[in-house]
TrEMBL record:
Stored NCBIfam families: lysidine_TilS_N
GO MF annotation terms: tRNA(Ile)-lysidine synthase activity
Entry EC no(s): 6.3.4.19
General function of this protein: Ligates lysine onto the cytidine present at position 34 of the AUA codon-specific tRNA(Ile) that contains the anticodon CAU, in an ATP-dependent manner. Cytidine is converted to lysidine, thus changing the amino acid specificity of the tRNA from methionine to isoleucine.
UniProt record similarity statement: Belongs to the tRNA(Ile)-lysidine synthase family.
Name of the molecule in the record: tRNA(Ile)-lysidine synthase
Record comment regarding domains: The N-terminal region contains the highly conserved SGGXDS motif, predicted to be a P-loop motif involved in ATP binding.
TM stretches of this protein: none
Amino acid sequence: MGPHPAVAAIRLAVRRALHDVLSEQAALREKAGDTTNPPEPPLVLVACSGGADSMALASALAFEAPRLGLRAGGVTVDHGLQPGSADRAREVTERLTALRLKPVESIAVTIGRTNTGPEAAARDARYAALDEAADRCGATAVLLGHTRDDQAETVLLGLARGSGTRSLSGMAEVTGPGDRYRRPFLAIDRQTTRRACLAQSLPVWDDPHNDDPAYTRSRVRHEALPMLEKALGKGVVEALARTARLSRDDADALDSWALQAERSVRTDVPGTDGWDGVELDTVRLFALPSAVRRRVLRRAAIAAGAPAGSLFARHLEEVDRLITAWRGQRPINLPGRVEAGRQGGRLVFRHCSPTPPAPTG
């Protein structure tokens, strides 16, 4: 008799992700010309909070990794946002150790005040901790337990912000430096991971923040999605996840087009004569489709020093009007002290240093 269907589903998803890791490692070794000496088996870590999604992921990694000749470890991040968080992190490490994962690490982080809100601050701190753990342990990959439901929520949040195609594409299966982060469960729903934990008698912890209406994602999960399913019928989550996949394909194609177009419209030579700004030919920019042109503008603004996370659609719309509705407007101020303005037949992005204080006395 085979495993429970939910257990079989999560194991298959993880097996596919691990096969990809092995294939990529073999390709890297072949490219480096190292095909004789057998290397140490790659280490794959699972990021685990103790919830059903990540515990199911940890159990599947513990089962599949040894069968593929991989080492499997785990890491949990203590955000310190709730009473008893350190005790809970210790419980998670004990559960990961019981699954025979090694090494197992617990990392405590401090969440500071930011302009982006507590959710984004916690996410940034978590990824920084995971990067640190992966570098220290020499891990080839880190598995994340995001599910199809998480993907649907991400698409809805992007839609509510009025974001473009890239935001609507949600989370990619592979991201991070060196393709470090893998999300095997993006095609698996949250109920399947919980059933897998029940079938294996795995204890799970339900984060109260996931039910707290103070958090935007929690409201989407418990109010917006159920309301949409009530109004539109079942299948909303699957449809949103499918939208993410289709949007990602479109965004990838447009990004590739924009990269080629940038080479034809850029009039400065990057990295020469101490110039760290960007100059673009306005006539050639005007001839580009708007979806491609705005991607070129975004790339130029980031190259000039604008933080990618602070650059929104409204910024790019204002800069785009310097091309499509030029009436002698003043330069546009962008995040990161970057300025975009017309100079003759060029659109110039430059970083503006803060004005020094006037001398006193």
